[in-house]
Design brief:
This protein has about 230 residues and is of the alpha/beta class. It has one domain: Vaccinia Virus protein VP39 (Rossmann fold, 3-Layer(aba) Sandwich), CATH 3.40.50.150. The chain contains five helices and eleven strands. The N and C termini lie far apart (about 45 Å).
Length: about 230
């Protein structure tokens, strides 16, 4: 049995040069006005470099960099995008973050795995001199849910699985005088359950709500991108 924290390890076995994920296209469309010639871009939680590979394919003149907490991911990302700069860094603890500030910063699929949103938001803003885009799960209702997930029979490890409200994020960012906006997004294609890992998401069709995305936690996934202007 592998630990729940190791769930994202499947990215090590996927080809990051495969057709881009739908939310990659969504993020790039949102950030298009800031992606000018020579702009510097940082991808936080870059995994194997798939997003930066896609970004390079549509914007060849950007200065790309990525960080991740996993040395294995960083090694693969360097193979995926050889002309980008990659390093091990932790947006939650703030350890080994880049000393420079970037024109555009992205963070995807990470926020709900972190325990304290005020900490990672401060750290993210510290490396942003233009705009930052955080894509992930946010609760459109005014409720913050803090939970943990562990595999059946595993009493030694667990991982956070939090759903923080857009309102709580806004209250905190307003206290810092940071301009921001949420852009809600729904997956435009069907995503069948084809993997044995219950933490990987899939779509279900409902009678009244159309297509919903869930995973083994049985939590409905409400996707959005948070844009912050430093």
């Amino acid at each position: 049995m592998y630990k729940i924290q190791e769930h994202n390890g499947f990215y090590l076995h996927e080809d990051p040069r495969c057709p881009p994920k739908e939310f990659f296209k969504f993020l790039v469309r949102l950030a298009e006005p800031q992606l000018s010639t020579g702009s510097t871009v940082l991808d936080i939680g870059c995994a194997s470099g798939a997003f930066l590979h896609y970004l390079r394919s549509v914007h060849s003149t950007l200065g790309l960099a990525g960080i991740d907490v996993s040395p294995q991911f960083i090694a693969k990302a360097r193979e995926t995008v050889p002309d980008a700069r990659f390093s091990v860094g932790d947006i939650n603890s703030g350890d080994h973050l880049p000393s420079e500030r970037f024109d555009v910063v992205f963070m995807s699929g990470v926020n709900y795995l972190l325990p304290d949103y005020e900490v990672w938001l401060r750290n993210l803003l510290s490396v942003t001199k233009g705009s930052a885009y955080v894509y992930g799960l946010f609760n459109p209702e005014d409720l913050d849910i803090y939970s943990t997930v562990r595999r059946s029979g595993d009493k030694t490890s667990s991982t956070p699985w939090n759903l923080i409200s857009e309102k709580s994020i806004s209250i905190f960012l307003e206290s810092l005088n940071v301009r921001h906006k949420f852009f809600r997004w729904t997956l435009p294609i069907e995503n069948p359950r084809t993997h044995a890992d219950p933490m990987r998401s899939w779509t279900i069709e409902t009678k009244d709500s159309g297509m919903l995305v869930i995973n083994g936690t049985q939590t409905v996934h409400r996707f959005a991108a948070l844009r912050m202007d430093a």
